[in-house]
Amino acid sequence: MINFLKKLGPGLLFAGAAIGVSHLVQSTRAGADFGFSLIWALILANFIKYPFFLFGPRYTLATGETLLHGYMKMNKLYLITYFLLSIVTMFTIQTAVTIVTAGLAIELFGLSSNITIWATTITFSCVLILIIGRYRFLDNLMKFVIILLTISTVIAVFFAGYNYENPVNLDQIIPKNQVGLVFLAAFIGWMPAPLDVSIWQSIWTLEKTKKEEKFKIKDALFDFNIGYITTILLGISFLSLGAFVMYESGEVFSNSGGEFAKQLIKLYTRSIGNEVFLIIAIAAFTTMLSTTITCLDASPRAMKITSELLNLKGFKSYNTWIIILSLGTLSIFIFFISEMGLLVKIATILSFITAPFYAFINFKLINSSHTPEKFKPSKFMNYFSVFGIILLTFFSIWYITIL
Description:
Layout: H1 2-6, H2 10-34, H3 39-63, H4 67-74, H5 76-109, H6 115-163, H7 178-190, H8 197-211, H9 217-246, H10 257-272, H11 277-310, H12 318-335, H13 340-353, H14 355-366, H15 379-402
Helix pairs in contact: 2-6, 2-7, 2-8, 2-9, 2-11, 3-7, 3-8, 3-9, 3-14, 3-15, 4-5, 5-6, 5-10, 5-11, 5-12, 5-13, 6-9, 6-10, 6-11, 6-12, 7-13, 7-15, 8-11, 9-10, 10-11, 11-12, 14-15
């Protein structure tokens, strides 16, 4: 078992980053609002994005460098585009995950109901942990967190299903009103994660190879697939939990981070019992805390490498970027929290409509002369990738037309 866990690393970090907003928030809300009717969207999103996430660790293991280095080699404009998009979205995404984490902290610890105070405490604690522990801490933390969350969620779904008295309706639908369509688009866009997370995956893979020289392509693919399958199963589990407990109950999820956190924990305790409140609260809080740490680590790593490649003087340090991201996140909490809904909407839109861009450049890079021949995808995987790019482009165009 210990040897099995040692083989895991970047794949579980991917799962940790993905399971935050797209699972705890979006999947649960999908089940609560639509029952089991959007399982098709969850599976489709994971299916068509799979190769583009996979190309991240594959390219890194083949070349010993990140996707960002590959983008620079292909065309500097690709890297500049990534840099500008990240500047627009990284603060909002970090704020979004921190809000839910802070809300869960209020529920768990109850020392203060001020979400800004908790957000500040959590952010600075994460910064301290990352500056001291870096990748090794993240690697070890995620193995514990994902196991804890998986066990508690599966138990909650089992009891929720066991106590569910209505017939289960598995009819699949496409929402008919604009609100439902916009949610569907956001659900697909963020499931299992925005495609730029493939860059984070390649960076974590490079870090893993530095720490463990025996981490080879076979181990990387095994690690990635374990993480990816876990995100799919937990996505279905969270959707099921929302469907069993809240669908057609008259109760709807709040847009407030604190109130949403309270409702989320109630989903579990209503399924299993109030006596497990502490276990569930810790599991949910640990999950979102790990997502907060993961995002707080990944964006500065990516921006550091990007700044080095673009030769941006004064911005080539990981510590510089983690401080910039932390201060930017807290500034949104203090000065722009009333506009959080708009900021999240902007980040969601950008994540959705840029998916074809990241899919295309990842596909182009893995098939380029910069990738050794033996590491290039098979014909089947290339056909699969082209199919995914076409679908992602279609969904992006469709999303813009319904806004």
